[in-house]
Write a structure and sequence with these properties.
This protein is α/β, with parallel strands linked by helices. The protein has helices at residues 10-18, 22-27, 36-45, 50-59, 70-81, 87-99, 108-121, 130-139, 145-158, 169-172, and strands at 6-8, 32-35, 63-65, 102-104, 127-128. The protein has a single domain (6-143), classed as 5'-nuclease (Rossmann fold, 3-Layer(aba) Sandwich). A five-stranded parallel sheet has the order 3-2-1-4-5. Helix 7 links the parallel strand 4 (102-104) and strand 5 (127-128). Helix 6 (87-99) runs parallel beside helix 7 (108-121). The protein is globular. The two termini are 28 Å apart.
Length: 173
């Protein structure tokens, strides 16, 4: 059995799209998939990253999947009725839980909802935040700590995304 598949929410993908490093997602030890809802959020709300996302799909860095399984459709609808989660978050949670995949997500409120839903469904759920994905990339030899720290600093300075760690050396040591 290969590495666990990771269903990515918009938040994690946008971090890599902003810095034009979807190649790192493509090289990650686990394959990443996105739902149509997540793809719509990227192309609809983040038009400047649309070209990069389409290139990542064409290069095979991520794979796009439809939500068409009845269990996923039902869970998506149930999540819609309970709270203010976006369509991308709802679809990523539904696919991850239904298919037993991991979930890549940064929004704490959405993560709490996913964990709650996993408990209701009795399914284990592994969640990877952007920080975790970066640590995994360092561990896989895709980035060294200095390069990861440079990306972290770029996100903080230029993209309004902060990982609360001084250096990835703290997470990888």
């Amino acid at each position: 059995m290969g590495p666990a598949i990771i269903v990515a929410d918009t938040s994690v993908l946008i971090n890599f799209l902003r810095i034009d490093r979807m190649d790192l997602i493509g090289a990650h030890p686990s394959p990443f998939i996105v739902t149509d809802h997540v793809a719509d959020e990227i192309t609809g709300s983040y038009a400047q990253q649309q070209t990069r996302f389409q290139a990542a799909l064409a290069a095979g860095h991520v794979m796009q999947h439809r939500i068409d399984d009845p269990a996923e459709v039902e869970m998506f609808a149930r999540l819609s009725a309970k709270g203010r989660l976006g369509a991308g978050e709802r679809s990523a949670i539904a696919v991850a839980l239904n298919r037993g995949f991991a979930l890549a997500m940064d929004d704490s409120r959405a993560i709490r909802r996913a964990v709650q839903e996993a408990g209701v469904a009795g399914n284990p759920l592994t969640i990877h935040r952007t920080r975790d994905v970066m640590v995994q990339m360092i561990g896989a030899g895709l980035l060294d700590i200095a390069a990861a720290d440079a990306i972290k600093d770029d996100w903080r300075r230029n993209h309004r995304f902060a990982i609360r760690v001084g250096s990835f050396a703290e997470s990888c040591g």
